[in-house]
C-alpha cells in the first residue's frame, strides 16, 4: 500500500476548514483592523457561550469584577445578546482593545466594560471584565431627582473621530484624564483638572453631572468643574490601582480602570459652592469600594464627556492585575 507523500499531506491540511479562532490568530502587529476584529470575535464567542471561538494564549488571564476565573465561567455562561449600547476603544500603540456598554445576561441588561490585550499573533493574553449586576431592589432612579433614563446609545461625541491635527500623544491623554482621579483623591476643588464647560458624566447610565432633568441646584445639575468646587470629594478616601490600559488617540479616548475606596469615616460633606456642611449619606458611612472603568473623551485638551461603569466590591479589594 502506497504511503501518502508529504506534499499530499500538506495539501490535505491546507484544505481543512479554518476555525474562527485560527482565522483570528493571523499576524496582528497591533493593527487597528486586527484589534477591532479580535474585539468582535470575542463578543461573538461570548454571546455564543463558546470560549473556544476566541484565540487565546496558553496562559491567558481572565478576571471578572476583580476575581480570576477560567474562561467559560461567569459572564461566559450567562451572556445572551450583544451589547445594546457600545463604545469601542482601540489602542494600536499598546495592542489593546476595550468596550464599554450594556450586555444582556438572561434578560438582565447590565452595564459592562471589558479590555483585551492582543499579542502580535492575534491571540488574547489578558481579558479583564467589569459587570454591574443589580440584584434585588426596585428600579434605579435618576440622579438629582431626575427621572431615570434608558439610553440606547452613548453620547454622540464619544464615537466621533477627531481631525488628525487634534490627536494628542497617548501620554497627554492619560495625564489629562488621570488629573480627574487626582482631583477626587487628593483635591478639594477643580484646580489642576482641565474640564470643558460642557463636560457631562454618565455613571451606569445615569447622568451624574450636567443632567438637564435634575432639580436646579442639585449636584447632578452642575457641570463637572462646579461639582469639584463643592468639595464633595471628602467621601472618597483613595483612588488606587489606577491603570490607563486602552487609549484611542483617533477618538481622544482614555480608558481608566481602578478602585474608589470609601472608608466610612467622614461625617460631613458639602454639595454646594457655599460649602455648607451636610450629613454624609448612610451609604458612605461604611467601608466599601467601587471597582470602576471610566472612559474620558478629550477635546482641545479638556475633558468633554465621561462614561463610567462601576460596581461595589469589598473594601480594599485588589484588582488582580
The top level CATH class name of the largest domain: Alpha Beta
Would you report the number of β strands? Answer: 14
Biggest sheet features: 6 strands, mixed
Number of helices: 5
Distance between the termini: 57 Å
Could you list the spans in which at least 5 consecutive residues all have pLDDT below 50?
A: 1-20
- Integer average pLDDT: 89
How would you sum up this structure, described in words?
The chain has 321 residues and is of the alpha+beta class. It has two domains: 20-133, Roll (Nuclear Transport Factor 2, Chain: A), CATH 3.10.450.50; 158-321, Nuclear Transport Factor 2, Chain: A, CATH 3.10.450.50. 17% of the residues lie in helices and 36% in strands. The protein contains five helices and 14 strands. It has helices at 6-15, 20-24, 32-47, 170-185, 224-229; strands at residues 56-64, 67-68, 79-91, 96-105, 108-118, 124-132, 195-203, 206-209, 238-248, 253-262, 268-269, 278-279, 288-299, 302-313. The chain has a six-stranded mixed sheet, covered by helices on one side. A hairpin with a 5-residue loop joins β5 and β6. It is globular. It starts with 5 loop residues before the first helix and ends in an 8-residue tail after the last strand.
Amino acid at each position: 500500500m502506497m504511503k501518502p507523500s508529504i506534499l499530499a499531506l500538506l495539501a490535505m491540511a491546507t484544505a481543512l476548514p479554518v476555525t474562527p479562532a485560527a482565522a483570528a490568530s493571523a499576524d496582528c502587529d497591533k493593527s487597528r483592523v486586527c484589534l477591532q476584529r479580535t474585539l468582535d470575535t470575542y463578543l461573538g464567542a461570548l454571546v455564543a457561550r463558546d470560549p473556544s471561538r476566541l484565540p487565546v494564549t496558553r496562559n491567558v488571564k481572565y478576571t471578572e469584577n476583580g476575581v480570576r476565573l477560567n474562561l467559560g465561567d461567569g459572564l461566559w455562561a450567562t451572556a445572551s445578546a450583544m451589547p445594546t449600547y457600545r463604545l469601542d476603544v482601540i489602542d494600536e500603540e499598546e495592542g489593546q482593545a476595550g468596550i464599554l456598554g450594556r450586555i444582556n445576561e438572561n434578560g438582565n441588561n447590565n452595564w459592562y466594560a471589558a479590555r483585551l490585550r492582543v499579542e502580535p499573533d492575534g491571540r488574547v493574553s489578558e481579558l479583564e471584565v467589569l459587570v454591574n449586576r443589580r440584584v434585588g431592589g426596585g428600579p434605579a432612579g435618576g440622579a438629582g431627582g431626575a427621572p431615570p433614563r434608558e439610553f440606547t446609545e452613548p453620547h454622540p461625541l464619544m464615537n466621533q473621530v477627531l481631525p488628525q491635527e487634534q490627536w494628542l500623544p497617548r501620554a497627554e491623554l492619560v495625564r489629562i484624564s488621570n488629573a480627574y482621579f487626582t482631583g477626587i483623591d487628593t483635591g478639594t476643588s477643580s484646580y489642576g483638572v482641565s474640564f470643558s464647560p460642557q463636560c457631562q458624566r454618565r455613571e451606569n447610565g445615569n447622568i451624574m453631572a450636567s443632567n438637564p432633568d435634575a432639580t436646579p441646584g442639585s449636584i447632578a445639575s452642575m457641570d463637572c468643574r462646579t461639582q469639584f468646587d463643592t468639595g464633595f470629594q471628602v467621601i472618597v478616601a483613595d483612588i488606587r490601582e489606577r491603570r490607563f490600559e486602552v487609549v484611542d488617540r483617533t477618538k481622544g479616548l482614555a480608558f481608566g480602570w481602578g478602585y474608589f475606596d470609601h472608608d466610612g469615616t467622614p461625617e460631613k460633606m458639602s454639595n454646594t459652592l457655599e460649602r455648607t456642611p451636610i450629613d454624609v449619606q448612610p451609604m458612605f458611612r461604611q467601608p466599601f469600594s467601587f471597582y470602576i472603568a471610566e472612559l474620558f473623551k478629550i477635546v482641545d485638551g479638556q475633558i468633554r464627556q465621561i462614561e463610567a461603569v462601576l460596581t461595589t466590591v469589598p473594601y480594599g479589594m485588589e484588582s488582580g492585575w
